[in-house]
Structures are given as C-alpha cells and as structure tokens.
Amino acid sequence: MLTQRIKRLSPYIPGEQPQDRTYIKLNTNENPYPPTPEIVPFLKSFDIERLRLYPDPLFGPLRAAIAERFQLDSSQVFVGNGSDEVLAFAFYAFFDSARGRLLFPEFSYSFYPVYCDFYGIEYRKIPLDENFSIEINDYLAEERSCGIVFPNPNAPTGIVLPLKKITELLEQYPEDRVVVIDEAYIDFGGESAVSLIDRFKNLLVIRTFSKSMSLAALRLGFAMGDKDLVGALFAVKDSFNSYPADLIAQKIGEIAIRDTEYYRSITEKIIQSRESLSIQLEDLGWHVLPSGANFIFVEKKGLSGETVYKTLKEEGILVRYFNLEGIRNFVRITIGTHEDMEALMNSIRALF
C-alpha cells in the first residue's frame, strides 16, 4: 500500500510539547516575550467577511515591507508558510545530486537531512572544528557539490560565522551553485549576509518570524536573494500550493516587520539574559559555547546531557537533549524571561 520512498523517510522530530504538567519551556527556542502590541488593533478590527476571499498569492504588501526593511527590491523577496517551508522549496529548486552532494555541518539543523531524504538529494555532513565552529575551507575542499546550506548562528551550537568568512566562502565557491544561509537566529548576534545579496547572485538568505519577532504560532518565513532565485521559489510554490500564507498572517507579518524599535528592545533583553546565564554557569564549572542566538549549548564535566535533561524535567524545566555522538554531553537551553532564568539557576545550583 505504501510507496518505498515513504518507507524510507525518517521525519523531523521537533522539541517535545508535553501536556502532563506546567513546565518552564526552554527547549524549542521560542521567544519568551509577546509580539508587538501593534498587532492588537488589527485583530480587533478585522472584518471576518474578508475570510471568504483568497489571500494575495504574491504577498505584495508584505514583500514590500520586508524589502523596505532590508533595503532590497520586492523582486528579491519570497514569503512562505514558515521558514521550514521556504527551506523545503529551496532544497527542491536549487539542490540535486546530478551536480554533487549538498554540504552542511555535521551538527546543525536536523531538518536538513530530512529534506534531502524527501527529495532524494545526496549530502555530506561536514565536521565542525575542535571549537564547534564552521570551517569554510572544508566546504571549498569538496570536489563536487550541488550547494551549501547552514544556519548562522549555527544550531544547536549557537556559534556565529563572521560575515568576513561568509564573504570568503562566496568569493571562492562556484557561482552556479547556491549557498543558503539560514538566519533564524541572526537578530540575537552576528551580522546578516543580506548586505551581500547584490554582490553574489548565488546567495539566498532565509529568515523567520518565529524567533526574534515572537510569532512562532503564525508560521511565516521569507527568503531574500537574487530575483532569479526568488522566481524559482515562486515556481516551486505555485507547483505545490498557490496560497501558502494566509491573509491574516500576511498582514500581521507586515505590521511586525515595521516595528523595529519594539523588537530591538526585547531582543536586547534576551541577549542580556543569555550573557548573564552564560557567566553564572561558567562560574559553576559548566562549559558554555559562545552563542549569538537565543539559546546556549552547555555541558558539565562528569554529567551526560541526558542526565541533565531528565533531572531538570523532573523539576518542571524543559531543555533540549540531542542523542548524537559528539554532543551527547550537551544540552541546549533556550533563553527565557528573567524569572525563567532565575528558576533554572536555582535548580541547577541545587541539583548539580
């Protein structure tokens, strides 16, 4: 009854969402602060009569707002139903095994190999260096590759690849192969590669409304790149679903992308909490990787990541544990509110 390809799939597994009790959720990198209050008047005044009509399949006003924010032309912007969908479209549009293997970090967003298996794309996981950083020469050394994709900051490590290194990579990588930079966490540290789009026609930058803009429930993401890359994404979209982002989501996204002052303020709170938490853990003997994201990746000598995860879960605190060789001793901790971080540190001091 089932096809062989569905039997071969190993679906992506998101962070757990248990319902058995109330938890302090520090496992899925959600923003602890609400989205811009500017959304409220729109929702209160929304005319439900408009729901009988299809949304704009070209996302015109939202693309224009994104383009204005990043000093681009609307033709350089694509919008989709969450950055995961945008990534899926990009994998289909730009990567194929006939030209070589897709390259991405050994420890990175675990959806990448899922997309590869879904589309039948051969891939190679490139090891991180001894400091868990991306080394661009390892990607350039690959003789045949159909493209490169990586998050910046990387996940789950949180380590930022400097813009200078990204520029060096693009300068040396073949112009007819696409480099996708997944900037889900860039607002929390590091420098965006958007400034390189006009210079490098093979660069695609993908962003999300889920993290720094506190709209994970909305499912809205976007890509920025050369107009030919954006056109290819629209071709994939229109071959799959002409209307992936609904009317309400598009309008809320437009409101959010314009409220830079509000989001800058809550992002600063998260950065301050991240730095404070990192210092406190280091003072207690924990190894904390330098993070430019809204999470930290940490380990404590003598403790397995699974032990830390299970012990904190019993205390009502969820963190993320990855059962993978090479990072089994680490856990990823999402940065929450000041109160969340105090509760976490109180538990860590008492338990470890």
What does this protein structure show overall?
The protein is built from twelve helices and 13 strands. The chain has two domains: 4-35 and 261-351, Aspartate Aminotransferase, domain 1 (Alpha-Beta Complex), CATH 3.90.1150; 39-259, 3-Layer(aba) Sandwich (Aspartate Aminotransferase, domain 2). The protein is globular. Helix 5 (111-119) links the parallel strand 3 and strand 4 (123-126). Helix 3 (60-70) runs parallel beside helix 9 (247-258), helix 4 crosses helix 5 (111-119) and helix 4 packs across helix 8 (227-238). It has 352 residues and is α/β, with parallel strands linked by helices. Strands 2-8-7-6-5-3-4 form a seven-stranded mixed β-sheet, sandwiched between helices. 37% of the residues lie in helices and 16% in strands. The chain has helices at 4-8, 39-45, 60-70, 83-94, 111-119, 136-140, 163-172, 227-238, 247-258, 260-283, 305-314, 338-351; strands spanning 24-25, 77-80, 101-105, 123-126, 145-151, 178-182, 203-208, 221-225, 286-288, 295-300, 317-318, 320-321, 330-334.
